[in-house]
């Protein structure tokens, strides 16, 4: 049994309640940050959204930037943890990249508000925490670039700077949060993820003359 499981099972009712309250606050803050922007949102508005007093929010997050940091960190963790098995698998580079793209689109569109906030508001943070988040995000890009570089070595992808292609592909996936609306009909998230993977692989495939 892992330490994480033991900690969860051994948590007191108070600890469970605290964790639940933090999640509620993060959900409400994410909604408001996505709708009206980080700068235009204050702790009192978050409290009103939840039906709490401001002091209740302040108890868990003494400053607004702590909320922003935590929700962006959680978004990054969701992406990294979901993609880790793909990076660890011994797959041909084109298949691995297709799986990475499918996963990326599905993750960001499962939590679109969270990722919109990450993309739009990261620059509102400063100091060590901002640097750590940026390092983590670029670390993911570098891992995608490593897959592309492996595909170039194997003759699957045309030669070019791998990190540039990785940034283009990640940017394509991220941009779906700005325009995709499941309520308008059209493609499902799975269908969109499949199309994004096809575009990425087709665009990189090497076709010698």
TrEMBL record:
The keyword Magnesium does not apply. Residues 42-61 bind DNA. It comes from the Bacteria. Residues 19-79 form the HTH tetR-type domain. The keyword Membrane does not apply. GO terms for molecular function: DNA-binding transcription factor activity; transcription cis-regulatory region binding. Keywords: DNA-binding, Transcription, Transcription regulation. InterPro entries: Homeodomain-like_sf (IPR009057), HTH-type_TetR-like_transc_reg (IPR050109), HTH_TetR (IPR001647), KstR2_TetR_C (IPR041490), Tet_transcr_reg_TetR-rel_C_sf (IPR036271). This is HTH tetR-type domain-containing protein. Pfam families: TetR_C_24, TetR_N. Signal peptide: none annotated.
């Amino acid at each position: 049994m892992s330490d994480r499981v033991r900690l969860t099972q051994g948590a007191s009712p108070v600890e469970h309640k605290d964790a639940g309250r933090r999640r509620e606050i993060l959900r409400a803050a994410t909604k408001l940050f996505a709708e009206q922007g980080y700068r235009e949102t204050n702790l009192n508005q978050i409290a009103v959204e939840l039906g709490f007093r401001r002091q209740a929010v302040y108890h868990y997050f003494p400053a607004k930037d702590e909320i922003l940091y935590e929700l962006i960190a959680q978004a990054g963790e969701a992406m990294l943890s979901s993609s880790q098995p793909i990076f660890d698998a011994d797959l041909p580079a084109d298949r691995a990249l297709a799986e990475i793209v499918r996963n990326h689109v599905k993750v960001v569109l499962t939590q679109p508000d969270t990722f919109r906030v990450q993309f739009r508001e990261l620059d509102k943070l400063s100091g060590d925490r901002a640097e750590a988040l940026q390092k983590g995000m670029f670390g993911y890009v570098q891992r995608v670039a490593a897959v592309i570089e492996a595909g170039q070595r194997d003759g699957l992808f045309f030669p070019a700077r791998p990190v540039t292609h990785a940034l283009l592909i990640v940017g394509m996936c991220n941009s779906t949060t700005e325009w995709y609306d499941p309520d308008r009909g059209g493609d499902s998230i799975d269908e969109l993820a499949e199309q994004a993977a096809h575009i990425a692989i087709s665009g990189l495939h090497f076709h010698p003359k």
